[in-house]
Design a protein that fits this description.
binds S-adenosylmethionine; 250 residues; single chain; 4-stranded antiparallel β-sheet; alpha/beta
Amino acid sequence: MIEFYDQLARFYHLIFQDWDQSIARQAQQLTEIIKSEWGSEITRVLDLSCGIGTQVIGLAQSGFHVTGSDLSAEAIARARREAAARGLEIDFSVCDMRNAYRHHGGGYDLVICCDNSIPHLLNDDDILIALRQMHACLRPRGGCLITMRDYDREERGKGILKPYGVRESADERYLVFQVWDWDENHYDLTMYFVEESRSSKAVQTHAMRSRYYAISPNKVSTLMEEAGFAAVKRLDGVFFHPVLIGTNRS
Ligand SMILES: C[S@@+](CC[C@H](N)C(=O)[O-])C[C@H]1O[C@@H](n2cnc3c(N)ncnc32)[C@H](O)[C@@H]1O
């Protein structure tokens, strides 16, 4: 998994039609959710799977004081470059979310874990460890916000194609797609970037592989309650994935 995201870091923006637009749209949607769920008391935000910075960059631009960490050192290196290029000062570090409290300590107003990061933990025990660490990172009445795929709605089988589209840059054209192979409640994913140079016409395929646990959002909600979160609920139609919300009532 670390290798998957280390290899993916230089291509990650190509998953989006326009990464900067996605950064802005996601920040707006997340800000609306944060204000409506917890009011204006949220300032210090901790992103435990920030990747190359899709959520932290936009939230920092929206005025939140953000901290970002991720398991992939290459993703963090790119997140640092992307933040610096936008004149943002964000504290980034490499950390496994299962070790979040030991690494970051407590007192945060909000912990986020977005874009289907939780299903990289391949069993309930590891997810519960991560959720307990998130809970410990929060001040009393602090919030937790997780976004993830709804696996109850995904087609299962072998060789399932997930096209992302064609992306153009100055000299390159990329064809981006995934192929999924299911194995009961897990699936193996290969992410492909077919890169064509317009000038030389040379074509290269970059392929990277990872495994996911297709846990349902309902099961993650149950584990959030077990980890100590109160008022756990699911929001649909407010972000491109279902959003799970919980509050630290300790
Ligand atoms: C689909 S990416 C999302 C990244 C970022 N939130 C975004 O939307 O661009 C999932 C991220 O989860 C991270 N990740 C997976 N397992 C992790 C773990 N145990 N601790 C911290 N990060 C993890 C990966 O390295 C990857 O950056």
